[in-house]
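re: ur question from yesterday

yeah so i grabbed the chain u mentioned. its 139 aa long if i counted rite. heres the sequnce exactly as i have it in my notes:
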Amino acid sequence: MINAIENLIYTGKTRTIGGRNGESRSSDGRLDVKLSAPGSSGTGTNPEQLLAAGWSACFIGAIGKAAAALKVALPNNVEVHSEIDLGTVGTAYFLRARLNVSLPGVPLDVARTLVDTAHDTCPYSKATRGNIDVEINLI
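ran it thru and got these C-alpha coordinates back, copy pasting raw so excuse formatting
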Protein backbone atom coordinates (compact mmCIF):
# COMPACT_ATOMS: atom_id res chain seq x y z
CA MET A 1 0.00 0.00 0.00
CA ILE A 2 1.36 3.42 -0.94
CA ASN A 3 0.36 5.29 2.22
CA ALA A 4 -0.83 2.87 4.87
CA ILE A 5 -2.97 4.64 7.46
CA GLU A 6 -1.57 4.32 10.96
CA ASN A 7 -4.41 6.08 12.81
CA LEU A 8 -7.89 5.88 11.28
CA ILE A 9 -9.80 9.08 12.03
CA TYR A 10 -13.03 8.56 10.12
CA THR A 11 -14.66 6.44 7.42
CA GLY A 12 -17.34 8.05 5.27
CA LYS A 13 -19.84 5.49 4.06
CA THR A 14 -22.44 5.99 1.36
CA ARG A 15 -24.83 3.86 -0.66
CA THR A 16 -25.46 5.06 -4.20
CA ILE A 17 -28.04 3.65 -6.58
CA GLY A 18 -28.85 4.66 -10.13
CA GLY A 19 -25.44 6.21 -10.90
CA ARG A 20 -25.48 9.77 -12.25
CA ASN A 21 -29.28 9.76 -12.34
CA GLY A 22 -29.86 8.17 -8.96
CA GLU A 23 -29.38 9.00 -5.34
CA SER A 24 -26.78 8.70 -2.63
CA ARG A 25 -27.22 8.47 1.12
CA SER A 26 -24.65 8.29 3.90
CA SER A 27 -24.81 5.52 6.47
CA ASP A 28 -25.64 8.07 9.20
CA GLY A 29 -28.37 9.74 7.09
CA ARG A 30 -26.75 13.20 7.18
CA LEU A 31 -26.13 13.15 3.44
CA ASP A 32 -29.16 12.34 1.29
CA VAL A 33 -28.90 13.67 -2.24
CA LYS A 34 -30.54 13.16 -5.58
CA LEU A 35 -28.06 12.87 -8.45
CA SER A 36 -28.35 14.18 -11.99
CA ALA A 37 -25.94 14.08 -14.89
CA PRO A 38 -24.05 17.37 -15.49
CA GLY A 39 -25.94 19.63 -17.86
CA SER A 40 -29.16 17.62 -17.60
CA SER A 41 -32.51 19.01 -16.59
CA GLY A 42 -32.49 16.86 -13.45
CA THR A 43 -32.85 18.55 -10.08
CA GLY A 44 -30.04 16.67 -8.34
CA THR A 45 -26.39 17.46 -7.86
CA ASN A 46 -23.62 15.64 -9.69
CA PRO A 47 -20.36 13.94 -8.66
CA GLU A 48 -18.26 16.85 -9.94
CA GLN A 49 -20.09 19.29 -7.65
CA LEU A 50 -19.69 16.90 -4.73
CA LEU A 51 -15.94 16.62 -5.39
CA ALA A 52 -15.68 20.42 -5.63
CA ALA A 53 -17.48 20.87 -2.30
CA GLY A 54 -15.49 18.22 -0.45
CA TRP A 55 -12.12 19.30 -1.83
CA SER A 56 -12.68 23.00 -1.10
CA ALA A 57 -13.79 22.29 2.49
CA CYS A 58 -10.74 20.08 3.06
CA PHE A 59 -8.46 22.64 1.41
CA ILE A 60 -9.66 25.41 3.75
CA GLY A 61 -8.83 23.13 6.68
CA ALA A 62 -5.35 22.54 5.24
CA ILE A 63 -4.85 26.31 4.84
CA GLY A 64 -5.79 26.69 8.51
CA LYS A 65 -3.21 24.10 9.56
CA ALA A 66 -0.56 25.78 7.40
CA ALA A 67 -1.40 29.17 8.91
CA ALA A 68 -1.18 27.80 12.44
CA ALA A 69 2.22 26.23 11.73
CA LEU A 70 3.51 29.50 10.27
CA LYS A 71 1.81 31.59 12.98
CA VAL A 72 -0.19 33.54 10.38
CA ALA A 73 -3.58 34.97 11.33
CA LEU A 74 -6.24 34.10 8.74
CA PRO A 75 -9.20 36.32 7.97
CA ASN A 76 -12.65 34.97 8.86
CA ASN A 77 -13.75 35.06 5.22
CA VAL A 78 -11.37 32.56 3.60
CA GLU A 79 -13.02 31.17 0.47
CA VAL A 80 -12.18 28.47 -2.05
CA HIS A 81 -14.10 28.57 -5.32
CA SER A 82 -13.59 25.09 -6.78
CA GLU A 83 -14.14 24.22 -10.41
CA ILE A 84 -14.13 20.58 -11.49
CA ASP A 85 -14.23 20.02 -15.25
CA LEU A 86 -15.45 16.77 -16.78
CA GLY A 87 -14.21 16.29 -20.32
CA THR A 88 -12.98 13.83 -22.87
CA VAL A 89 -9.93 13.09 -24.93
CA GLY A 90 -11.17 10.89 -27.74
CA THR A 91 -13.52 8.47 -26.00
CA ALA A 92 -11.80 8.60 -22.58
CA TYR A 93 -13.24 10.72 -19.75
CA PHE A 94 -11.04 12.91 -17.56
CA LEU A 95 -11.31 15.47 -14.76
CA ARG A 96 -9.49 18.78 -14.40
CA ALA A 97 -9.61 21.10 -11.39
CA ARG A 98 -9.08 24.71 -10.41
CA LEU A 99 -9.06 25.87 -6.81
CA ASN A 100 -9.44 29.65 -6.70
CA VAL A 101 -8.50 30.78 -3.21
CA SER A 102 -9.41 34.09 -1.57
CA LEU A 103 -7.37 35.14 1.46
CA PRO A 104 -8.36 38.80 1.93
CA GLY A 105 -5.74 40.92 3.66
CA VAL A 106 -3.02 38.26 3.55
CA PRO A 107 0.12 39.46 1.72
CA LEU A 108 0.53 37.74 -1.64
CA ASP A 109 3.80 35.96 -0.79
CA VAL A 110 2.35 34.65 2.48
CA ALA A 111 -0.88 33.61 0.76
CA ARG A 112 1.13 31.71 -1.89
CA THR A 113 3.09 29.88 0.82
CA LEU A 114 -0.15 28.97 2.61
CA VAL A 115 -1.88 27.57 -0.49
CA ASP A 116 1.24 25.71 -1.65
CA THR A 117 1.58 24.13 1.79
CA ALA A 118 -2.14 23.32 1.86
CA HIS A 119 -1.88 21.68 -1.55
CA ASP A 120 1.02 19.55 -0.27
CA THR A 121 -0.95 18.40 2.79
CA CYS A 122 -4.66 18.31 1.82
CA PRO A 123 -5.77 14.66 1.43
CA TYR A 124 -7.88 15.54 -1.65
CA SER A 125 -4.87 17.19 -3.28
CA LYS A 126 -2.77 14.14 -2.47
CA ALA A 127 -5.41 11.80 -3.89
CA THR A 128 -5.54 13.66 -7.21
CA ARG A 129 -1.82 14.53 -7.53
CA GLY A 130 -0.42 13.18 -10.76
CA ASN A 131 -3.85 11.95 -11.83
CA ILE A 132 -5.55 15.14 -13.03
CA ASP A 133 -4.48 18.65 -14.00
CA VAL A 134 -4.86 21.00 -11.02
CA GLU A 135 -4.41 24.78 -10.84
CA ILE A 136 -4.26 26.62 -7.52
CA ASN A 137 -5.01 30.31 -8.07
CA LEU A 138 -5.08 33.23 -5.65
CA ILE A 139 -8.01 35.55 -6.28
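noticed a couple things. The first helix runs from residue 47 to 70. also The helical segments are 47-70, 108-121, 123-128.
anyway ttyl
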